[in-house]
């Protein structure tokens, strides 16, 4: 197993350690994200926070995709209950 890992690391070792892959640091990873929705780019948070952002963007689903919107609402309600129950308030 270790021989396999050593071979794998040897094959891509130059790619991992090369600091010049991303350039001089002016280009951030958020700027090169392709195929990611705008409301999700640069997002850092939990699933509940992500679904709240998504609901604000896809609010038109109420009329156009009621089943998908209902599933989204159900997931938000369930996560709210779970996080509210398990998270301590200071």
TrEMBL record:
<keyword id="KW-0687">Ribonucleoprotein</keyword>
<dbReference type="InterPro" id="IPR019373">
    <property type="entry name" value="Ribosomal_mL51"/>
</dbReference>
<dbReference type="GO" id="GO:0006412">
    <property type="term" value="P:translation"/>
</dbReference>
<keyword id="KW-0496">Mitochondrion</keyword>
<keyword id="KW-0809">Transit peptide</keyword>
<comment type="similarity">
    <text>Belongs to the mitochondrion-specific ribosomal protein mL51 family.</text>
</comment>
<keyword id="KW-0689">Ribosomal protein</keyword>
<dbReference type="GO" id="GO:0005762">
    <property type="term" value="C:mitochondrial large ribosomal subunit"/>
</dbReference>
<dbReference type="GO" id="GO:0003735">
    <property type="term" value="F:structural constituent of ribosome"/>
</dbReference>
<dbReference type="Pfam" id="PF10244">
    <property type="entry name" value="MRP-L51"/>
</dbReference>
<protein>
    <recommendedName>
        <fullName>Large ribosomal subunit protein mL51</fullName>
    </recommendedName>
</protein>
């Amino acid at each position: 197993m270790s021989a396999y890992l050593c071979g794998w690391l040897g094959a891509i070792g130059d790619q991992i350690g090369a600091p010049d892959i991303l350039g001089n640091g002016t280009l951030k990873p958020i700027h090169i994200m392709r195929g990611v929705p705008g409301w999700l780019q640069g997002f850092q948070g939990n699933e509940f926070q992500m679904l709240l952002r998504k609901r604000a963007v896809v609010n038109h689903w109420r009329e156009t995709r009621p089943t998908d919107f209902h599933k989204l609402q159900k997931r938000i309600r369930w996560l709210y209950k779970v996080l509210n129950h398990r998270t301590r308030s200071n």
